[in-house]
Every structure is written in C-alpha cells, then in structure tokens.
Amino acid sequence: MRDLLLKCLFPLVLLAASGHALAQKVVQVASGYNHHALLREDGSVWTWGDNQSAQLGDGTKLNRASPGVVPGLTNVVRIAAGGFHTLALRSDGTVWAFGANDLGQLGDGGTALRNSAQPVPGLTGASAAWRAAAITRSR
After folding, report:
1. What is the dihedral of CA 118, 82, 9, 68, to 10 degrees?
2. Maximum CA pair distance of the chain?
C-alpha cells in the first residue's frame, strides 16, 4: 500500500517542488502503469507520461513529459487510472474513458483504443461517491 501511495503522490510532489502552478488547487491524483492524471478544483483533468495506448486522452499516442489538459473533458468530479487507460466521472453522472481497450476495459462493447475522452455508452447516473479504481495492469 505504501508503494502505491508513493506512486500516486510523487508526481504531485515533483510539480509542487518545481513551483508549477498546476500543483495548486489539485483535488485528486491518479496513476496508471506509467502515466498520471490529476483533477483540479475547476473540474479540468491534466495528464502526462507514457501514451502508447492513448491513455493521456489528448488525441495522440505521443508521450508527454509535462502535464497537458485533456481536451473536451470538463466538470469532472473524480478520476481513476488503470494500467493503460483513464476514467473520469463528470458532475452530470456520466463516465468518460480513454486509452487501451484491448480487453474491453473502456466499457464501450468493443476493443478499439480511444485517443480522446468519450462517454461510456449506457452508463449514466453514476454517483460522486465513487472513490477510486484499483490500479491494475490492463494487458
């Protein structure tokens, strides 16, 4: 558990230590296998790290060493990261997903990866009580 906690908090500590403005008003941090996501107070989601499976949600598969906002993903209240995918719960109760999907982990009924945030079909009315998803290897 200690290692998992360190893996999730270390990216935020680095941002704060560097004086990066992004470290201010952070609500939640989630880490996948080699990518990270953070949720800010304004409901925006920022991602960085490995992007081989499009888990950064920026429309590419290019790795990114510094945080970038996930386009089109707003009003988020909770985030979670799997090994190679990322999930977000919006305030309207919809769940959005992006990244690897070879095992159907995005819940869209298919296996094609998504390089941008898309709503999970048929999954609405999710509760903000959703806390976190376990970090598991999705391959």
Report:
1. -30
2. 42
Rounded distance between C-alpha atoms, residue 132 and residue 87, angstroms: 10
pLDDT at residue 5 tops 60: no
Q: What is the dihedral of CA 121, 74, 37, 78, to 10 degrees?
A: -70
pLDDT digits (tens, 9 = 90+) for 89-103: 999 989 999 999 999
Q: Is 61 helix (H, G, I), strand (E, B) or coil?
A: coil
Q: What angle do CA 126, 9, 129 make, to 5 degrees?
A: 15
C-alpha gyration radius of the chain: 14
Neighbouring C-alpha atoms within 13 Å toward the C-beta of 61: 7
pTM of the model: 0.78
Q: List beta partners, residue 118.
A: 97
